Amino acid sequence: MMLSAKFFSPFFIIICIPFFASSQATLRLSQPSRDQSNVSTAKQFIAGRTCAGCTVKINSDTVHVYTTGTFAAKYELSAGRNAFTVTTTAPNGETSTKNIVFYFSTPPAPSATSIFRIDYMEISPSGNLQLMEGDTLRIKMKGYPGESASWFNDVPLKELPTSQTGGVPGIYSGSYILQAKDSLLNGKIIGRLRKRSGETAILGSTYRYSMMRNEIPLTGRTIDNMTYLTASPHGDRLGPDKIGYLDKDVLLHIVGRQGDYYKVKLSSRTTAFIPEPLVDTEIPQEQLPVSIADDAKIWGDEKYDYVSVALSDKLPYTSTQLVSSKKIIVDIHGAYAEKGLNTVLQNTKEITSVGWGQPTPDVCRMVISLQHAPWGYQVYYENNRIVVKVKRPPQTPSLRNMVIGLDAGHGGSNPGATGLTGAVEKNLTLVLSLQLKALLEREGATVIMTRTTEKFVANEDRLSLFRRTNPDLLLSIHLNSSANPVDAYGTATYYKQPFCEPLNAAIHERLLQTGLYDFGNNAGFNFILNNPTEFPDALVETLFLSNPGDEEKILDPAFQRQVVTAIVEGMKDYLKEAVKSR
Ligand SMILES: [Zn+2]
Fold first, then answer.
1. CATH, residue 171
2. Which residues form the signal peptide (predicted)?
């Protein structure tokens, strides 16, 4: 009984929202947020909520009102003042009106700098940085056209032809490779513009730069197994794009600093970034080891198959998968594979062969071929032996006895998206996840959830829960959102690891059968729960809460059941394919 009370309380609040809307001619706009606004784009929206059963007119156009009482319309503004009158009429004839004005002006087209000066410069990489000899800096600078521009050591910059600058003259660009003797004493990079008469204009960089001069490389070690490497310190709204997670105590060669990140050299041709707090530099500083990989083992026990290689230290690694050719690829950075490295299999059930390669002079590559498309694997260290533990897919395509990780997105102080009715994503993800849990348990699965109540759970804690409990499959349930309430709608799945594509495709396919529009099965997504390689995962963005049509659907309990059923059917479809050794 307790369970059903928990189950129904968020559910109750959500489906009731439309019925709270009175039959009076109420009118509440979500977009625009003010009655009068200055805008610089022509495409604008008028969206909001009235009573269920009311009609809405914007100027003389009748706008569709959903059963939830919401409406949304898109307009192309003309330059200047654009006035709209939104009128809602209740069944009893009562009306309510709001007047909206957009003042639309396009920003002035960029024009040539008309006086002798530098307007701005953009240096990449940007940020307050510590740089090393060999780092490349690029500059783009806008100033008075037709003069000679330079930066470091009077290295000239080239004025770009106007065909490359959208018609604007005076854009100068160039690149520079830092030399050991270069000084950045005052911390600023200076751009110069010089007239033939000798007159000079200068501008200093916004950010500060300094040189890292280390005779021996600075080394550090990862503090725990939640440590990740990123391709760049600049992320999107989901944080920096992660290359992969490393085990605890992995030795890293630090070659720079950018903001709160260390730049680390993985191998002669690869660098990455790692958040400073995740690296322990209070370790004995040593020359980096050169590791000859000459002792490899490939074996299976009752549950897993393994590949391991002895190294002289815990070196960084990266991995990926080839799904159609059923391979896992692990690169060990800073290691050399000895010719004739062991390829003998002992009792493996999933691994069919292991190949050893050397894609660059200091990267040792293992190519692990499997019976099936990859089902998950973990890379870790046992002393200085790197171990790849390969999961075997289940023997039958059944959810019975399977452990499913289930993440109800958002919660507590992290509400997620809000629909035009006021429905909140965190409540709907919980409603859907609890229904999913019930359905999966009816199939005989065990379900591990990040939350079963309305509460805050940090994303790092969600990841750490699943890396600890190691489910067979992981789903994260969300609702999508866009600033465009009219054109963005439909169902989508998102993944990052290539081997997760089939699970996502199968769930997406079933969700399309509910009649939702196709918003895609999307690769390369940077969500934290898309990172693990230990199990197949899918981020399910069921539909767009920001779209009134999609919102109307998901507030309908019958449609919620269809969505949940489609997800479970998709999982079963995936399992059927995954157990086949094609
Ligand atoms: Zn979300």
1. 2.60.40
2. 1-21
Alpha carbons 190 and 572: distance in angstroms, whole number: 61
How many Å lie between the centroid of ligand 1 and the Cα of residue 36? 30
CA dist 258 and 174 (Å) reads 21
Q: What's the CA-to-centroid distance between 530 and ligand 1, angstroms?
A: 13
Question: In the block, which residue shows the tokens 């002895």?
Answer: 310
* Model pLDDT, residue 581: 65
In a domain, 183, yes or no: yes
Cα–ligand 1 centroid distance for 414 (angstroms): 9
- Ligand 1 centroid–CA 441 distance in Å is 24
Domain end position, chosen among 344, 362, 391: 391
> 161, 184, 210: which is the final residue of a domain?
210
The total of structural domains in the chain comes to 5
**pLDDT by residue (tens digit) across 237-268?**
666 778 899 999 999 999 888 878 899 999 88
202-205 LR contacts (CB < 8 Å, sep 24+): 202/118, 203/118, 203/120, 203/121, 203/141, 203/143, 205/121, 205/123
Q: Is residue 567 scored above 90 in pLDDT? A: yes
Residue-range definition of the domain harbouring residue 255: 218-280
By the 10 Å C-beta count (0-12 exposed, 13-18 middle, 19+ buried), 204 is classed as middle
Q: Are residues 321 and 419 in the same domain?
A: no
Q: Are residues 510 and 526 in the same domain?
A: yes
Tell me the CA–centroid distance for residue 492 and ligand 1, in Å.
12
This prediction's pTM? 0.84
